[in-house]
Amino acid sequence: MTVKTYTIKYAYSSRNDIKGIKQYILKTFKYRTYLFFYVVDDEANVVTLLHALQDGMNWKSIINRWLKENV
Question: What residues contact 70, with CB distance under 8 A and at least 6 apart?
């Protein structure tokens, strides 16, 4: 079995998500629930992070707004 290594890229839409909660995630990751939206490109070995949401956010309204803006 070969273990693949992937590069992580951040979509423009995820940069503010990560910037805003990066330190918080690093300090308390095991105590929170996170919802990550990402795309995997196996041919290029790249995972692109689209959005990161943490618990306590109104996920449904954020997802609906994001879909309206991007679909």
Answer: 13
50, 49, 53, 13: which is closest to 32 by C-alpha? 53
Structure tokens of 42?
A: 């196996």
- pTM, to two decimals: 0.59
Residue 1 confidence class, pLDDT cut points 50, 70, 90: confident
- Dump pLDDT digits (tens) for 27-70: 666 556 778 889 999 999 999 988 887 776 677 777 788 788 87
CB 46 within 8 A of CB 35: no
Number of helices (H), then strands (E), belonging to the chain: the values are 2, 3
| DSSP label at residue 32 | S
